[in-house]
Give the backbone structure.
Amino acid sequence: MPAGVDNLERLEEEARREIAAVESLQALTEVRARYLGKKGSVAGVLRGIGDLAGDERARVGQLANTTKKRIEEAASERRHALERSDRDRALDAERLDTTLPGAEEPPAGRLHPVTRVFRDMVEFFTSMGFSIEEGPEVETEYHCFEALNIPEVHPARDEQDTFYVEGGNVLRTHTSNVQIRAMAGRTPPFRFIAPGRVYRHDLSPRHYPMFHQIEGFLVDEGVSFGDLKGVLYAFGRHLMEGEIDLRFRANHFPFTEPSAEMDYACLLCERQGCGVCSNSGWIEWGGCGMIHPQVLENCGIDSERYQGFAFGMGVDRTALLRYGIPEYSAALRRRPARVGAGLMRVSLQWLAEFIDLPKEADLVERLTLGGFEDVEVSSTGPDLSEVRVGLVRECGRHPNADRLSVCRVDLGSGELIEVVCGAPNVAADQKIAFAAVGTRLPDGTLLKRAKIRGVVSTGMICSDRELQLGDDHDGILVLDPDAPVGAPLPEVISTGDRELEVGITPNRGDVTSVIGLAREVRAHFGGDLRTPETDPLETGSPAADAIRVEIDATDDCHRYVARIVRGVRVGPSPDWVVAKLAASGIRSINNVVDVTNLVLLEFGQPLHAFDLAKLRGGCIKVRRATAGEKLVTLDGEARELCAEDLVIADSECAIALAGVMGGANSEVGDATTDILIESAHFHPSRVRVAAKRYGLKTEASYRFERGVDRLGVGRAADRAARLIAELAGGEVAAGRAVAEGAAPTVTEEIRFPTDRSNKLLGTALSKSEMAELLERVGVGCTAAEADVLVCSIPSHRTDLHLHQDLSEEVARIYGYDRIPVTEPVGVLRGVERPRLWRVAERARDALVAAGMIECQTLPFLNAEWVDALQLDPDDPRGNAVRLVNPIREEESLLRTTLLPSILRIVQQNRSRQVSRIEVFELGTPVPRGWGTLALGWETSHRSR
Ligand code: DAH
């Protein structure tokens, strides 16, 4: 009996028993190895069959193999069974018993609306191959400003409303800082977006100091403005979930060239005008443009090879529009991307003396698209839109009063209105100005029904004076017989001047004058410029004999021109002068000073008039002040000057702070007879530094900072002398007394590669079309080699230096709206979200799922709240950085932990009897780096 066979049968039986008994996969594996493994029992039997006879050996061998197979099968069956029951157990554990009563309703958590909008934006941009970049909220001035071409001594800096942090940093005012951080030291192509919080120290109660922006930029070879439009259209469609109407307006950002602001058509009123769009039909969306070559160079990128676009926009408004959250309206009104404007106001009639004007609506539209902000035309006169043209049908004597008449007035409806009228000149068939009951008159009174000597009067026939159109009160205002009955009065007569108001970007010093605005009108609409006469009638002895002009500080003053007028009679100005100044917001002082202001408005050249008799030593010196030198400025303030200041002095002392304000010691007064008119060209930063230091923003400093026409200095002095002689009498001394300083650095000529310009803009304009567009803004063009125009820059355009600047001019006049929309090409790469970003997103989801509400609080801390945390003395959270200019002195620390702000929310909610407060915030305690998560919560008993 071959032992092997018995053995095998016994083995199989044992194996089956053991397999059936195991309860885990692990145990099964062990059993299986024991019987079937290389050193297992079956193998042992097989090893022993060598002693057996031939056919016996074969039989046992075969049996051993089948045994092996059968044990194998049994093991595998058992494995399946074990796996199945594991799964069932797991499922059993998870199965809900729907017969149980409902647990407490899950609490409703919520993401902050801005987070939701950010997520949506991120989703869109990552699908376009943009990856996320983050940058610090406490930022260096270099990254926030300088590297972006916003130097300290530049008017654009004013608009940034910056919070300064002790130690020289700032709270970032925009997300554009990320451009610098993300590009520096890397090689294009780049496609980045940077969502984040930004801060502006704006004290107006309508603005929240913290808001959100998203920045995006793409740099590669051959990226164009058309591509920028393409991306923004696609983005807009994604955000608004449908078609979108965008508008691109020329604008100025120091870090882009060309630059634009973009608006989207108001979705609420569909461009009809409503409260949300301030009746304009458009909602500002953000700023954008082609990244300035200097910014690329600042990041070490070859700006000849690469070009790219950037855009930045506020996010809070989108959140509001999406989710309709009224509490958010403070942030809503925050303008997203304003590198703001100075305002210029001017009488339209005055402007029309310089150039023929188009229809008002066209003027407003083109100036808006062409780079002015907040363009508006308004009436200066009283609002008489409720007063209407009436026809006196009947006019009879008042039954009880000799001097009164009773009239019946037709307003076009056929119904006759009975009024009592005291004017001697009223008569039947006259067209008159009629104020119905309920009309508010310009003096503020509300017209009521009245009984006059027993006759009821329902309305009033108005005189000039009642309408504040003049002083005539002898009788009523009789209108033209053709005036249409029922029409509002302003449609029939002129009820005051019309005023144009425009916001001017800080680069455009050349449009801070009537002539500048007229040139701009000409650029858009064509026409001939009419400039005022400047040559004075010279009768006196030469000015140069009476006064010597010397420039010591030659770098600060490029040219100084003096004119002398003797024998003037200082007195009030004529009405037309007062009115023109008033339209521009300048108060009339006397005929001499008024002329200097009038010419400042006409030409944009600031002037100053000195009382010649008060100047000592027969000289004017332009020099730096000595430290501690005193000057009482015209506003009555005694100022102590420093060696940085540029002054105008006579032989003894300072008589004016150059380019900013005159001194009291040389002021023109009623007794003045001889005057010296100053017209000069000072260095913009010299004026800016002084204006800033003394907090003196004047009409003069405003213009000098932005750049005045260096070739217009003499002409303005001439014009002023001429006008003074005209208005105040006196003799104009022959010629000008002049001194020259160092020549200013100016750009007189730019080589303009038309081909590159087309590539930058995404246009296909011919060389001659480009030349024509440039000539409309006064840039002279001559053709050089193929694809290059040699452009001569007019002296008033102090902002044009690079060929990119000229591309902006081309786009501005051609119209940004006509640039074709294209889509950027480039390598699409998969994008990965930064690790911290992903962690933060998961944390948000988890907390919201747990029923918590996400909030965002200001990062400012009160020292008392920090004390209340009772931190250890060496806890770094007790060591906060201070804001230099906090909104409120008590909250002048930057938070080192989010806890106090969260606790504040809890406290505020409790005091409003909210019983369940579960909130969290993800934020950045500063200055200790990114991504720290802080939770704050309180679960008092739930109210249900
Ligand atoms: N940084 C600008 C602001 O808030 C917004 C902006 C404008 C960003 C134009 C850009 C841009 O990238 O191209 O004030």
Summary: The first helix runs from residue 3 to 21. Residues 330-341, 928-936, 938-944 have pLDDT under 50 and may be disordered.
